[in-house]
Amino acid sequence: MNSPNPTQLQGLLFEMDDVLHDATLWRRWLLQLLVRMGLNTRYRSFFRVWDDEYLDDVHCGRREMSEAFRSFLLAAGLTHAQIDEVVAAAQARKRYLDATLRPLPGVRTTIQRLAERGVALGVLTDSDRSGDDLRQTLRGLGLGEQFSVVLSSLDLGRTKPDTFCYRSALGLMGFEARQVAFVGHAADDLNGARRAGLRTVAFHRATGGAAGHHLNRFDELLSLIEPAKARVSALTQAV
Prior knowledge:
The chain has helices spanning 25-36, 43-59, 65-75, 80-99, 107-116, 131-140, 153-156, 163-173, 187-195, 228-238; strands at residues 11-14, 120-125, 149-152, 180-184, 199-202, 213-214. By secondary structure, it is of the alpha/beta class. The longest helix is centred in the middle third of the chain and has 20 residues, at 80-99.
């Protein structure tokens, strides 16, 4: 597939998890804990159930995270006593990881350079936290001031790949779909962005081959966006 035309892209809309930072740290820690407690499972199969049967309701605000997590662990075969132990440990671990969260390699510098080029930057992510809360996390990553829009599924009551999510973000950014590329890692989310009319860029553990462009390194985003002066010059010459 062809990569996005740099003269047409005015904005980038990012998934947050596993694009701007590693969102698997807590999950990998949790699985190690559960395996030590005797649970016989694997990462993908275990969290596929969590994602498919519980997390969507949490991210849309229809269910509290703590209640859904306890129900999930109970269905996985843990006793109530074990669940109490896991929940206490998991909450403490999550607080530690949130306090020490770091952007993925190349993210901070690339985001800064994109902003300097006049690119509009936004975040669209599925989360049990509001966009305002997530902006605080982005500030902790050294990124918060660069994004004009930070939108969460909790704000919308819907999750990706619902096209309503992408169109809502576009409306806040003030662009048409063809002017913006969605940068994500999950095939369903990338397909949803494509159906909404956005360009698509796959990064990190992207699967499915659905994107118009694939990044091996985050800083390759810079090759998709020409500096503002170059865009203005190209437009002037065209006129």
